[in-house]
Amino acid sequence: MFGARCVRLALRHSSSAPLPKHAATAKLLRVKEALEVQNPTSNDVKVQGWVRSVRSQKEILFLHVNDGSSLESLQVVADPGLEPRELSFGSSVEVQGKLIRSPHKRQNVELAAESIRLVGTCDVL
Q1: DSSP code at position 7
Q2: Domain named OB: which ranges (predicted)?
Q3: Is 125 a domain residue?
C-alpha cells in the first residue's frame, strides 16, 4: 500500500510536460478495480504501477502491470512503437487507454494502451 501511494505522489510532482488532451478526462483506476470491471465501456482510463513482465513481438506489445492492490496483474496490450527504450521489469509506468473485453478465458479485461509513460526505471544489475 505504501509503495503505490508513493508512486502516485511521485507521478503528480515529477513531470512538468503538458498532459495529452485525453489525460484530463482519463479516470484513474487501481489494478484491482480494473480487473473487477464486468462490462468495459469506451471511457479512457489510467493505471499506474510497476511492470511485472514485458513481451514485445513484431505487431504487439504485452505488459503486465501491478500496483499492489491485487495479487493479479492487469494485462496491457499496445503497439510496439509506444514502448519506451528503458522499459523493463520493475519500471514504474503510467498507462492510459481503454479497457476492453479480453479474448482469453483466464482474464476478463485488458487495457488497450494509447500511451505509456515511463515514470522511473529499475536498475536490474
Answers
A1: H
A2: 45-118
A3: no
